[in-house]
Amino acid sequence: xxxxxxxxxxxxxxxxxxxxxxxxxxxxxxxxxxxxxxxxxxxxxxxxxxxxxxxxxxxxxxxxxxxxxxxxxxxxxxxxxxxxxxxxxxxxxxxxxxxxxxxxxxxxxxxxxxxxxxxxxxxxxxxxxxxxxxxxxxxxxxxxxxxxxxxxxxxxxxxxxxxxxxxxxxxxxxxxxxxxxxxxxxxxxxxxxxxxxxxxxxxxxxxxxxxxxxxxxxxxxxxxxxxxxxxxxxxxxxxxxxxxxxxxxxxxxxxxxxxxxxxxxxxxxxxxxxxxxxxxxxxxxxxxxxxxxxxxxxxxxxxxxxxxxxxxxxxxxxxxxxxxxxxxxxxxxxxxxxxxxxxxxxxxxxxxxxxxxxxxxxxxxxxxxxxxxxxxxxxxxxxxxxxxxxxxxxxxxxxxxxxx
Length: 404
Prior knowledge:
This protein is an alpha/beta fold. It is built from 16 helices and 14 strands. The strands form four sheets. The chain has a six-stranded parallel beta sheet with strand order 9-10-11-12-13-14. A three-stranded parallel beta sheet has the order 1-7-8. The chain is globular.
């Protein structure tokens, strides 16, 4: 028995022709598509190549090539052999563990994968739709976001007690962003996803959007790489290490702009969450902003009603995966700032060993209380995503876990 687990980062896979079949003719050049070409998978917007990745990128983690990774299969999913479980070390070995992400495109198999991985609910982002910010046309981006949001809302309808979709909000224009926030809020969405790399989150024109998010109790989420940013900023030796590590810098920029520009201070009921940026750095950022706020006071404008570190404690949240040591920062940023994620079905995530990661989190943080683990694994997410209506499930599981 473990606490209720809510993953704040997971993905659903759209039909391959979602955008090419639904974009109107005059916007066809902004339709997102992805096809395999030999050993490379190419993502395009219209005819423009946006991204290339090796088709067998997942093999190092899954032991299968890209075709097997994507292909759905039928039948029961094998569970770990009990003989392979060492309760003392909280570790499940590779024997009899099916590493295929069979639920990427199949809801029944998705729930089966979640069950065997010990995950009760997930905040889900798109796959093709991760490229929506790359559409460099106002109407094209607006229409494509609407297409995705309508599809995702319908797709998750049968399982929305377990899969909570984030609405993709067009950020080409402030009015368009507010319009889609209003529309998706009326649909019932529990999260708004904005773009990274805009370099304008100090702009007061964000205030109506953050005010709406606060009023409707809908957190604003940011997913790494979801923006018109250079995800391959460095090439050559060490490039992969640099490019993946620096993704947390995009979160640092957004937080510093929203805090320094006063948007969060003026909208104290708004909350922001960063998915797949890690979490341990948040305390250092909060301390640095306080240092700057005091040390460079004559140059600081606007003046804030709270210290930057307090704004972080009140309104900023980060998802952690394998970086379970981030829990040691709870005294600096507050336990409410830390949430768990698996990044299913991506190979850099924790599936199918999320139970192991949870066990390691508990084993490596002996100073944390049971209440801390309940909060990080699911309680904080249930409080943040109010519209998902999961708080009663978190509390019931907490009682069962304590009794066990």
